[in-house]
Structure formats: structure tokens, C-alpha cells
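Me: I keep going back and forth on a fold encoding question. No explanation is needed for now; the record alone will do.

Assistant:
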Amino acid sequence: MPLNIERNYTGLGSEANKGALTWLIYPGADNHFTVHHPDKSGSSTVTMTNYSDRIELALKEMKKPSIFNIHLEKKPIRLSFNGIELSDSTDYQYDEQKMRLTARIVGIKDGLLIIKR
């Protein structure tokens, strides 16, 4: 589910989310979602594929920076985007209490985000 978050009152983000598209991801069933941007800049698609050891998010035609809030029961082993390993605390954070992984893809990019469980 894509969201436009600009404040922290929902608990799903903060002012730091402003200008980025925030995606709520609930792993389990394979799925895809296309958002059509109201500013007429086109559309962006996220396709989720679940495996026993990882989750793959294929990003296509990303028109805006993206933040992914992913419900996970435990901290992932590793995250990578287009084959480049992402850094814990810099590129992503895991909140144990909320069981939520937050990953930020800076810039406008297409590619594959892999969350290794």
C-alpha cells in the first residue's frame, strides 16, 4: 500500500518521509501494486515475491524516492539493492517492538531489493 506521509501522527513515518513515497509491505502472499502519481509523472510498480529464505521487491518506473515499511517478525540477516549490500542504521533500520523494517531507497531507481531472512 503506497502512502504519502508528511508527519509522524500515524506512527508510520515522520517529517523525514516528506517527498518520498512510503510503501507498507506485509509479506506472505506474492503480490504487486501500481500507483499512479497524482502529479501526472506516471506510475510506479512494486512486485513482491516471497521465498522461504528471502523477500524480493522488484521496483519498476520509480518516479520518487521510496521508503519501505516492511512487517517482519525478526531482524533480517541482510538487505541488498541491485546486488549492493545495504548498511544497517544507514540504509535501513529494524524496530523490534513494532516488528518493522524501514528501508530507504535514495533517488529514483528501478531494481531489486532483496531482504534475506
In short: The chain has a mean pLDDT of 85. The first strand starts at residue 2 and ends at 3. The two ends are 22 Å apart (CA to CA).
